[in-house]
């Protein structure tokens, strides 16, 4: 959805501004252009040591890195019907905390262990002088691990974390008793501690990943100035995190548009291509073609209104 759009458009835009940019995401599929780097790292998750392997491809100036582990791949293979977060709406996989804890720790390893030379301006590992942009609750443990595992060893001393909220409604709320699964010191318990009035997944006290991500990051950002205002406007719009976000502050940055992908002069899905000089001639013809295709009365003088958004409770 929206997060996929941002991760598709923002990194190439940052690379075009001269930054060295890497994205790290789970390897949910056998992506045909992502190659095995043969780099393996061992990560401690939930009291056991897991091995992950990194896959990589280089596109539009961006190192696209995928974290390979059986628990990512198995969720979209076979009978699961490509359900990434749960077997059906409203139900989560029991191993979500395990999997996204693995992703966060792998993302902290990637800049240090991957020797990437795709770009003629940059070579070798990224090192630890980096900025992490963590997106939504699944990546909220990243600043927590950075502070408790790496910084005490003198690694990532100057690294910063920006936490970006795309959808405040999903926060990663889990039973409080499961804090121990996260391999974090008790000093961070307060950042996760959360009480709500719901019985899911358990009644009463919970841990809240997004709350911790907001509190432990250096900056909190979101996808528009208006959404930033909305999140602090009250308990319903901030989905009970409004007080926490008011405390840290939040900056809304308008999502940019990928002008390469959304270019009507080159768009392969348009029967008639146009630019700013031919738009007034082409648009009525395209409108008629669309009306015909979807079975509406064909009339270039009728307004056609498109809506892109979510229909949700």
From TrEMBL:
GO MF assignments: glycosyltransferase activity
InterPro entries (UniProt xref): Starch_synth_cat_dom
SUPFAM superfamilies linked: UDP-Glycosyltransferase/glycogen phosphorylase
Record bears the keyword Glycosyltransferase: yes
Gene: GBSSI
Keywords linked to the UniProt accession: Glycosyltransferase, Starch biosynthesis, Transferase
PANTHER family: GRANULE-BOUND STARCH SYNTHASE 1, CHLOROPLASTIC/AMYLOPLASTIC (PTHR45825), GRANULE-BOUND STARCH SYNTHASE 1, CHLOROPLASTIC_AMYLOPLASTIC (PTHR45825:SF3)
Designated name of the protein: Granule-bound starch synthase
GO terms of biological process kind: starch biosynthetic process
